[in-house]
Amino acid sequence: MRDPYHYQGTCPQSGRLLRLERTVEAERAAFELMRELPELAEGKMFGLLLTAEGAVLRAFSGTQPQAGWAPPIYTPAPSPVPAQLDQLKLELQSLAAHPAFARLSELEADWQDRLSQFQQSCRLAKARRDDLRRQGGEEARLTLQSQRESTARRHLRARRRAELEPLANEVAELRTRILELKKQRRQLSANLQRQMHDELSQTLSAGQGWSLASLFPAGPPTGTGECCAPKLLFQAARAGLTPVAMAEFWWGPAQGTRRPGEFYAACAERCQPLIGPLLARLQPLKILHQDDELLAVVKPPGVLTVPGRQSWNQDCLWRRLQREFPQILPVHRLDMETSGVCLWALTPECQRELQRQFAQKLVKKTYRALLSSQPAQRSGRLDLPLAPDPGQPGRYRIDPEGKPSLTEFEQIQGALYQFRPHTGRSHQIRVHAAQGLQAPVQGDRLYGGGDGPLRLHASCLEVLHRGQVLRLEAAAPF
Asked: Any idea which residues carry the catalytic annotation?
Protein backbone atom coordinates (compact mmCIF):
# COMPACT_ATOMS: atom_id res chain seq x y z
CA MET A 1 0.00 0.00 0.00
CA ARG A 2 1.19 3.51 -0.83
CA ASP A 3 2.83 5.33 2.08
CA PRO A 4 1.80 9.00 1.64
CA TYR A 5 4.25 11.83 2.19
CA HIS A 6 3.21 14.65 4.52
CA TYR A 7 4.45 18.21 4.57
CA GLN A 8 4.64 18.75 8.30
CA GLY A 9 6.04 21.04 10.94
CA THR A 10 5.48 22.35 14.43
CA CYS A 11 3.29 25.34 15.18
CA PRO A 12 5.64 27.87 16.86
CA GLN A 13 2.85 29.09 19.17
CA SER A 14 1.13 25.90 20.34
CA GLY A 15 3.84 23.32 19.68
CA ARG A 16 1.34 21.12 17.82
CA LEU A 17 2.44 19.04 14.81
CA LEU A 18 0.67 20.27 11.67
CA ARG A 19 0.47 18.14 8.50
CA LEU A 20 -0.56 18.48 4.87
CA GLU A 21 -0.59 15.34 2.74
CA ARG A 22 0.70 14.84 -0.79
CA THR A 23 -2.39 12.98 -1.93
CA VAL A 24 -3.07 10.87 -5.01
CA GLU A 25 -5.29 13.71 -6.24
CA ALA A 26 -2.45 16.20 -5.88
CA GLU A 27 -0.08 13.91 -7.79
CA ARG A 28 -2.68 13.40 -10.50
CA ALA A 29 -3.06 17.17 -10.86
CA ALA A 30 0.74 17.47 -10.98
CA PHE A 31 0.94 14.96 -13.87
CA GLU A 32 -1.64 17.03 -15.75
CA LEU A 33 0.48 20.13 -15.13
CA MET A 34 3.58 18.34 -16.45
CA ARG A 35 1.83 17.85 -19.80
CA GLU A 36 1.41 21.63 -20.08
CA LEU A 37 4.99 22.53 -19.22
CA PRO A 38 7.52 23.28 -21.98
CA GLU A 39 10.99 21.81 -22.20
CA LEU A 40 13.40 23.74 -20.02
CA ALA A 41 17.08 24.44 -20.57
CA GLU A 42 17.62 24.38 -16.83
CA GLY A 43 15.68 22.25 -14.37
CA LYS A 44 13.73 23.60 -11.39
CA MET A 45 11.13 22.55 -8.83
CA PHE A 46 7.43 22.99 -9.54
CA GLY A 47 4.50 22.54 -7.20
CA LEU A 48 0.77 22.87 -6.79
CA LEU A 49 -1.67 23.14 -3.93
CA LEU A 50 -5.28 21.96 -3.90
CA THR A 51 -7.74 23.93 -1.77
CA ALA A 52 -11.09 23.18 -0.20
CA GLU A 53 -12.56 26.07 -2.19
CA GLY A 54 -11.64 24.33 -5.46
CA ALA A 55 -8.79 26.65 -6.42
CA VAL A 56 -5.51 25.13 -7.60
CA LEU A 57 -2.43 27.22 -6.87
CA ARG A 58 0.75 26.67 -8.92
CA ALA A 59 4.32 27.72 -8.21
CA PHE A 60 7.91 27.25 -9.33
CA SER A 61 11.08 27.89 -7.39
CA GLY A 62 12.69 31.29 -7.81
CA THR A 63 11.69 34.93 -7.59
CA GLN A 64 10.74 35.69 -11.20
CA PRO A 65 7.01 36.60 -11.27
CA GLN A 66 4.85 35.08 -13.98
CA ALA A 67 1.11 35.39 -14.60
CA GLY A 68 -0.90 32.38 -13.45
CA TRP A 69 1.72 31.30 -10.90
CA ALA A 70 2.15 32.08 -7.22
CA PRO A 71 4.05 35.37 -6.98
CA PRO A 72 7.19 35.85 -4.90
CA ILE A 73 6.44 36.07 -1.19
CA TYR A 74 7.61 39.67 -1.15
CA THR A 75 8.98 42.31 -3.48
CA PRO A 76 12.33 43.70 -2.27
CA ALA A 77 12.40 47.39 -1.45
CA PRO A 78 14.31 49.50 -3.98
CA SER A 79 18.01 49.42 -3.21
CA PRO A 80 21.13 50.76 -4.91
CA VAL A 81 23.11 47.71 -3.76
CA PRO A 82 22.41 45.41 -6.77
CA ALA A 83 23.66 48.10 -9.16
CA GLN A 84 26.70 48.63 -6.93
CA LEU A 85 27.41 44.89 -6.97
CA ASP A 86 27.13 44.84 -10.76
CA GLN A 87 29.57 47.75 -10.97
CA LEU A 88 32.00 45.97 -8.64
CA LYS A 89 31.74 42.83 -10.74
CA LEU A 90 32.62 44.76 -13.91
CA GLU A 91 35.52 46.50 -12.19
CA LEU A 92 36.87 43.20 -10.86
CA GLN A 93 36.62 41.65 -14.30
CA SER A 94 38.45 44.62 -15.78
CA LEU A 95 41.20 44.44 -13.16
CA ALA A 96 41.60 40.67 -13.59
CA ALA A 97 42.08 41.22 -17.34
CA HIS A 98 44.64 44.04 -16.89
CA PRO A 99 47.56 43.57 -19.37
CA ALA A 100 50.09 44.01 -16.55
CA PHE A 101 49.38 40.45 -15.36
CA ALA A 102 50.15 38.97 -18.79
CA ARG A 103 53.21 41.19 -19.30
CA LEU A 104 54.63 40.23 -15.90
CA SER A 105 54.04 36.55 -16.58
CA GLU A 106 55.68 36.76 -20.01
CA LEU A 107 58.64 38.76 -18.72
CA GLU A 108 59.17 36.38 -15.79
CA ALA A 109 59.12 33.42 -18.20
CA ASP A 110 61.58 35.18 -20.54
CA TRP A 111 63.98 35.95 -17.71
CA GLN A 112 63.66 32.41 -16.42
CA ASP A 113 64.82 31.14 -19.83
CA ARG A 114 67.70 33.65 -19.97
CA LEU A 115 68.86 32.75 -16.47
CA SER A 116 68.61 29.03 -17.25
CA GLN A 117 70.73 29.47 -20.40
CA PHE A 118 73.29 31.54 -18.48
CA GLN A 119 73.47 28.91 -15.71
CA GLN A 120 73.91 26.19 -18.31
CA SER A 121 76.79 28.09 -19.99
CA CYS A 122 78.38 28.68 -16.56
CA ARG A 123 78.23 24.95 -15.77
CA LEU A 124 79.88 24.08 -19.09
CA ALA A 125 82.58 26.73 -18.53
CA LYS A 126 83.25 25.42 -15.04
CA ALA A 127 83.54 21.87 -16.34
CA ARG A 128 86.18 23.07 -18.90
CA ARG A 129 88.10 24.93 -16.21
CA ASP A 130 88.09 21.86 -14.01
CA ASP A 131 89.56 19.81 -16.91
CA LEU A 132 92.25 22.44 -17.51
CA ARG A 133 93.15 22.50 -13.82
CA ARG A 134 93.60 18.72 -13.84
CA GLN A 135 95.88 19.14 -16.89
CA GLY A 136 97.93 21.81 -15.07
CA GLY A 137 96.41 24.85 -16.71
CA GLU A 138 97.29 28.39 -15.58
CA GLU A 139 95.37 28.92 -12.31
CA ALA A 140 95.38 32.72 -12.35
CA ARG A 141 93.72 32.85 -15.75
CA LEU A 142 91.11 30.23 -14.75
CA THR A 143 90.31 32.09 -11.50
CA LEU A 144 89.86 35.35 -13.46
CA GLN A 145 87.35 33.60 -15.77
CA SER A 146 85.39 32.35 -12.76
CA GLN A 147 85.30 35.88 -11.25
CA ARG A 148 84.10 37.35 -14.55
CA GLU A 149 81.23 34.81 -14.62
CA SER A 150 80.21 35.78 -11.07
CA THR A 151 80.22 39.44 -12.03
CA ALA A 152 78.13 38.71 -15.15
CA ARG A 153 75.65 36.74 -12.99
CA ARG A 154 75.23 39.70 -10.61
CA HIS A 155 74.75 42.13 -13.48
CA LEU A 156 72.21 39.80 -15.13
CA ARG A 157 70.21 39.49 -11.93
CA ALA A 158 70.31 43.26 -11.40
CA ARG A 159 68.98 43.81 -14.92
CA ARG A 160 66.22 41.24 -14.23
CA ARG A 161 65.27 43.03 -11.01
CA ALA A 162 65.30 46.41 -12.73
CA GLU A 163 62.99 45.19 -15.47
CA LEU A 164 60.63 43.14 -13.30
CA GLU A 165 60.32 45.32 -10.20
CA PRO A 166 58.18 48.18 -11.65
CA LEU A 167 55.82 45.72 -13.29
CA ALA A 168 55.68 43.56 -10.15
CA ASN A 169 54.82 46.63 -8.08
CA GLU A 170 52.04 47.52 -10.51
CA VAL A 171 50.64 43.99 -10.30
CA ALA A 172 50.87 44.08 -6.48
CA GLU A 173 48.83 47.29 -6.44
CA LEU A 174 46.28 45.69 -8.76
CA ARG A 175 45.99 42.64 -6.49
CA THR A 176 45.58 44.87 -3.43
CA ARG A 177 42.79 46.74 -5.21
CA ILE A 178 41.15 43.44 -6.19
CA LEU A 179 41.22 42.25 -2.57
CA GLU A 180 39.70 45.55 -1.43
CA LEU A 181 36.91 45.30 -4.01
CA LYS A 182 36.19 41.67 -3.11
CA LYS A 183 35.94 42.61 0.56
CA GLN A 184 33.63 45.48 -0.36
CA ARG A 185 31.54 43.14 -2.50
CA ARG A 186 31.25 40.57 0.31
CA GLN A 187 30.12 43.30 2.73
CA LEU A 188 27.56 44.70 0.30
CA SER A 189 26.27 41.20 -0.46
CA ALA A 190 25.96 40.43 3.26
CA ASN A 191 24.11 43.71 3.87
CA LEU A 192 21.77 43.07 0.94
CA GLN A 193 21.13 39.50 2.10
CA ARG A 194 20.39 40.74 5.62
CA GLN A 195 18.01 43.41 4.29
CA MET A 196 16.21 40.85 2.12
CA HIS A 197 15.89 38.41 5.02
CA ASP A 198 14.57 41.19 7.29
CA GLU A 199 11.94 42.10 4.70
CA LEU A 200 11.08 38.44 4.14
CA SER A 201 10.78 37.89 7.90
CA GLN A 202 8.46 40.88 8.29
CA THR A 203 6.27 39.65 5.44
CA LEU A 204 6.14 36.02 6.54
CA SER A 205 5.84 36.43 10.28
CA ALA A 206 3.97 39.72 10.69
CA GLY A 207 1.75 39.29 13.75
CA GLN A 208 2.83 35.68 14.20
CA GLY A 209 5.14 35.90 17.21
CA TRP A 210 8.10 34.30 15.40
CA SER A 211 10.80 35.43 13.01
CA LEU A 212 13.22 33.92 10.50
CA ALA A 213 15.93 34.27 13.12
CA SER A 214 13.98 31.98 15.46
CA LEU A 215 13.57 29.36 12.70
CA PHE A 216 17.15 29.61 11.37
CA PRO A 217 19.46 30.18 14.38
CA ALA A 218 22.55 30.08 12.14
CA GLY A 219 20.95 32.52 9.69
CA PRO A 220 18.63 31.83 6.75
CA PRO A 221 20.48 30.32 3.78
CA THR A 222 20.44 32.07 0.43
CA GLY A 223 17.18 31.41 -1.40
CA THR A 224 15.03 31.07 1.72
CA GLY A 225 11.41 31.70 0.79
CA GLU A 226 11.94 30.96 -2.91
CA CYS A 227 10.92 27.28 -2.75
CA CYS A 228 7.52 26.16 -4.07
CA ALA A 229 5.99 24.97 -0.79
CA PRO A 230 6.45 28.25 1.17
CA LYS A 231 5.22 30.28 -1.81
CA LEU A 232 2.11 28.09 -2.15
CA LEU A 233 1.27 28.11 1.55
CA PHE A 234 1.81 31.85 1.85
CA GLN A 235 -0.30 32.51 -1.24
CA ALA A 236 -3.11 30.37 0.22
CA ALA A 237 -2.98 32.34 3.48
CA ARG A 238 -2.96 35.63 1.60
CA ALA A 239 -6.00 34.56 -0.45
CA GLY A 240 -7.90 33.10 2.52
CA LEU A 241 -7.93 29.61 0.99
CA THR A 242 -7.90 26.31 2.87
CA PRO A 243 -5.27 23.85 1.60
CA VAL A 244 -6.13 20.16 1.41
CA ALA A 245 -3.10 18.71 -0.42
CA MET A 246 0.21 19.74 -2.01
CA ALA A 247 2.82 18.17 -4.29
CA GLU A 248 6.24 19.24 -5.63
CA PHE A 249 8.12 17.75 -8.57
CA TRP A 250 11.26 18.37 -10.62
CA TRP A 251 10.98 19.44 -14.24
CA GLY A 252 13.74 19.92 -16.80
CA PRO A 253 17.19 18.32 -17.18
CA ALA A 254 18.28 16.10 -14.31
CA GLN A 255 20.45 17.73 -11.67
CA GLY A 256 22.22 15.67 -9.03
CA THR A 257 19.61 13.35 -7.57
CA ARG A 258 16.73 15.32 -9.14
CA ARG A 259 14.96 13.58 -12.01
CA PRO A 260 12.26 15.13 -14.23
CA GLY A 261 8.71 14.14 -13.34
CA GLU A 262 9.56 12.73 -9.91
CA PHE A 263 8.07 13.99 -6.63
CA TYR A 264 10.25 15.30 -3.82
CA ALA A 265 9.92 16.28 -0.17
CA ALA A 266 10.40 19.80 1.16
CA CYS A 267 14.10 20.70 1.12
CA ALA A 268 15.62 20.47 4.59
CA GLU A 269 17.78 23.63 4.47
CA ARG A 270 15.51 26.41 3.20
CA CYS A 271 11.98 25.04 3.09
CA GLN A 272 11.31 22.64 5.96
CA PRO A 273 11.74 25.16 8.84
CA LEU A 274 8.97 27.30 7.29
CA ILE A 275 6.38 24.53 6.87
CA GLY A 276 5.05 24.46 10.45
CA PRO A 277 4.76 28.24 10.88
CA LEU A 278 3.08 28.65 7.48
CA LEU A 279 0.66 25.79 8.11
CA ALA A 280 -0.20 27.44 11.43
CA ARG A 281 -1.34 30.54 9.54
CA LEU A 282 -3.77 28.38 7.57
CA GLN A 283 -5.54 26.68 10.45
CA PRO A 284 -9.31 27.32 10.18
CA LEU A 285 -10.76 29.55 12.86
CA LYS A 286 -13.09 27.86 15.32
CA ILE A 287 -16.46 29.61 15.59
CA LEU A 288 -18.00 29.37 19.06
CA HIS A 289 -21.19 31.30 18.36
CA GLN A 290 -22.77 32.97 15.35
CA ASP A 291 -26.05 34.76 14.79
CA ASP A 292 -27.03 37.80 12.75
CA GLU A 293 -25.67 40.21 15.39
CA LEU A 294 -22.74 38.59 17.15
CA LEU A 295 -19.81 36.34 16.28
CA ALA A 296 -17.46 34.62 18.74
CA VAL A 297 -14.32 32.80 17.56
CA VAL A 298 -11.23 31.27 19.11
CA LYS A 299 -8.32 33.59 18.40
CA PRO A 300 -5.11 31.65 17.70
CA PRO A 301 -1.91 32.78 19.43
CA GLY A 302 0.48 34.98 17.51
CA VAL A 303 -2.21 36.85 15.56
CA LEU A 304 -3.10 40.49 16.10
CA THR A 305 -6.76 41.19 16.88
CA VAL A 306 -6.80 44.34 14.71
CA PRO A 307 -4.15 45.78 12.35
CA GLY A 308 -0.96 47.25 13.76
CA ARG A 309 0.47 50.66 12.98
CA GLN A 310 3.20 49.47 10.58
CA SER A 311 2.74 48.34 6.98
CA TRP A 312 4.20 44.92 7.75
CA ASN A 313 1.79 44.02 10.61
CA GLN A 314 -1.53 44.45 8.85
CA ASP A 315 -2.38 40.74 8.95
CA CYS A 316 -4.83 40.27 11.83
CA LEU A 317 -7.90 38.35 12.94
CA TRP A 318 -10.18 41.19 11.84
CA ARG A 319 -8.92 41.11 8.25
CA ARG A 320 -9.12 37.32 8.11
CA LEU A 321 -12.73 37.34 9.33
CA GLN A 322 -13.69 40.11 6.88
CA ARG A 323 -13.29 37.65 4.01
CA GLU A 324 -16.37 35.78 5.25
CA PHE A 325 -18.02 38.55 7.29
CA PRO A 326 -17.43 41.85 5.45
CA GLN A 327 -19.54 43.80 7.95
CA ILE A 328 -17.68 42.55 11.04
CA LEU A 329 -16.80 45.10 13.74
CA PRO A 330 -14.29 44.77 16.62
CA VAL A 331 -15.53 44.76 20.19
CA HIS A 332 -12.44 44.12 22.36
CA ARG A 333 -8.84 43.03 21.93
CA LEU A 334 -6.57 40.23 23.06
CA ASP A 335 -2.79 40.60 23.08
CA MET A 336 -1.14 39.25 19.93
CA GLU A 337 0.34 36.24 21.72
CA THR A 338 -2.79 35.52 23.78
CA SER A 339 -5.27 32.96 22.49
CA GLY A 340 -8.92 32.34 23.32
CA VAL A 341 -12.46 33.67 23.10
CA CYS A 342 -12.77 36.82 21.01
CA LEU A 343 -16.06 38.66 20.40
CA TRP A 344 -17.12 40.49 17.25
CA ALA A 345 -20.22 42.44 16.33
CA LEU A 346 -22.03 42.07 13.03
CA THR A 347 -24.07 45.25 13.45
CA PRO A 348 -23.17 48.72 14.78
CA GLU A 349 -25.92 48.41 17.40
CA CYS A 350 -24.45 45.16 18.75
CA GLN A 351 -20.96 46.70 18.78
CA ARG A 352 -22.16 49.65 20.87
CA GLU A 353 -23.99 47.39 23.32
CA LEU A 354 -21.07 45.00 23.82
CA GLN A 355 -18.58 47.83 24.21
CA ARG A 356 -20.90 49.38 26.81
CA GLN A 357 -20.85 46.12 28.77
CA PHE A 358 -17.04 45.97 28.63
CA ALA A 359 -16.74 49.64 29.66
CA GLN A 360 -19.11 49.15 32.63
CA LYS A 361 -17.29 45.95 33.68
CA LEU A 362 -20.39 43.83 33.13
CA VAL A 363 -18.53 41.18 31.07
CA LYS A 364 -17.19 38.28 33.11
CA LYS A 365 -13.77 37.21 31.83
CA THR A 366 -11.81 34.13 32.78
CA TYR A 367 -8.27 33.34 31.67
CA ARG A 368 -6.01 30.37 32.15
CA ALA A 369 -2.26 30.78 32.43
CA LEU A 370 0.61 28.40 32.89
CA LEU A 371 3.07 30.22 35.13
CA SER A 372 6.82 29.87 35.07
CA SER A 373 6.79 28.82 38.73
CA GLN A 374 4.21 28.03 41.40
CA PRO A 375 3.40 31.12 43.49
CA ALA A 376 3.30 30.96 47.26
CA GLN A 377 -0.37 31.98 47.18
CA ARG A 378 -2.93 29.54 45.81
CA SER A 379 -5.73 32.09 45.52
CA GLY A 380 -6.46 35.70 46.25
CA ARG A 381 -6.92 39.19 44.82
CA LEU A 382 -4.32 41.43 43.22
CA ASP A 383 -5.46 45.02 43.67
CA LEU A 384 -2.42 46.66 42.08
CA PRO A 385 -2.64 49.84 39.93
CA LEU A 386 -0.87 49.76 36.57
CA ALA A 387 0.81 52.43 34.46
CA PRO A 388 3.06 52.51 31.36
CA ASP A 389 6.71 51.86 32.17
CA PRO A 390 8.52 55.06 31.11
CA GLY A 391 11.84 53.25 30.85
CA GLN A 392 10.51 50.50 28.58
CA PRO A 393 8.04 51.69 25.92
CA GLY A 394 5.26 49.20 25.22
CA ARG A 395 5.46 47.70 28.72
CA TYR A 396 3.54 48.33 31.93
CA ARG A 397 4.38 48.17 35.61
CA ILE A 398 2.76 48.28 39.03
CA ASP A 399 2.61 51.96 39.97
CA PRO A 400 0.80 53.55 42.95
CA GLU A 401 -0.04 56.47 40.67
CA GLY A 402 -1.42 54.19 37.95
CA LYS A 403 -4.97 53.19 37.03
CA PRO A 404 -6.85 50.83 39.39
CA SER A 405 -6.42 47.19 38.34
CA LEU A 406 -8.03 44.23 40.07
CA THR A 407 -7.46 40.54 39.29
CA GLU A 408 -8.71 37.48 41.14
CA PHE A 409 -6.60 34.33 40.85
CA GLU A 410 -6.95 30.69 41.82
CA GLN A 411 -4.70 27.67 41.44
CA ILE A 412 -6.05 24.86 39.26
CA GLN A 413 -3.11 22.46 39.42
CA GLY A 414 0.57 23.06 40.00
CA ALA A 415 1.60 26.16 38.04
CA LEU A 416 -1.68 26.23 36.08
CA TYR A 417 -3.77 29.15 37.38
CA GLN A 418 -7.11 30.75 36.60
CA PHE A 419 -7.40 34.55 36.48
CA ARG A 420 -10.52 36.73 36.53
CA PRO A 421 -9.70 40.37 35.68
CA HIS A 422 -12.32 42.84 36.94
CA THR A 423 -10.66 45.67 35.01
CA GLY A 424 -9.37 45.65 31.47
CA ARG A 425 -5.92 47.22 31.58
CA SER A 426 -3.34 46.42 28.91
CA HIS A 427 -1.18 43.44 29.93
CA GLN A 428 -3.04 43.31 33.25
CA ILE A 429 -2.75 39.57 33.93
CA ARG A 430 0.82 39.41 32.64
CA VAL A 431 2.03 42.23 34.90
CA HIS A 432 0.06 41.02 37.92
CA ALA A 433 1.51 37.53 37.50
CA ALA A 434 5.09 38.70 36.94
CA GLN A 435 5.26 41.57 39.45
CA GLY A 436 2.43 40.74 41.83
CA LEU A 437 2.87 36.97 42.18
CA GLN A 438 6.56 36.95 41.14
CA ALA A 439 5.68 34.19 38.68
CA PRO A 440 5.60 35.38 35.03
CA VAL A 441 3.44 33.58 32.51
CA GLN A 442 5.46 30.95 30.66
CA GLY A 443 6.87 32.27 27.39
CA ASP A 444 6.30 35.93 28.32
CA ARG A 445 9.03 37.81 26.44
CA LEU A 446 8.13 41.18 27.96
CA TYR A 447 7.82 40.38 31.64
CA GLY A 448 9.54 37.07 32.17
CA GLY A 449 12.39 36.80 29.70
CA GLY A 450 10.68 33.84 28.04
CA ASP A 451 11.11 32.86 24.42
CA GLY A 452 7.47 31.95 23.68
CA PRO A 453 4.90 30.74 23.10
CA LEU A 454 2.94 32.71 25.69
CA ARG A 455 0.81 30.35 27.80
CA LEU A 456 -2.12 32.72 28.36
CA HIS A 457 -5.60 31.87 27.12
CA ALA A 458 -9.00 33.61 27.35
CA SER A 459 -10.97 30.53 28.33
CA CYS A 460 -14.41 32.02 29.04
CA LEU A 461 -16.47 35.14 28.45
CA GLU A 462 -19.99 35.86 29.74
CA VAL A 463 -22.01 38.66 28.16
CA LEU A 464 -25.65 39.66 28.10
CA HIS A 465 -27.05 39.01 24.64
CA ARG A 466 -30.71 39.26 23.62
CA GLY A 467 -31.77 39.42 27.21
CA GLN A 468 -29.91 36.30 28.28
CA VAL A 469 -26.46 35.44 29.59
CA LEU A 470 -24.31 34.05 26.77
CA ARG A 471 -21.43 31.93 28.09
CA LEU A 472 -18.65 31.29 25.60
CA GLU A 473 -15.87 28.80 26.40
CA ALA A 474 -12.72 27.60 24.64
CA ALA A 475 -10.39 24.99 26.07
CA ALA A 476 -6.80 26.13 26.64
CA PRO A 477 -4.23 24.57 24.27
CA PHE A 478 -1.85 23.82 27.17
From this structure: 335
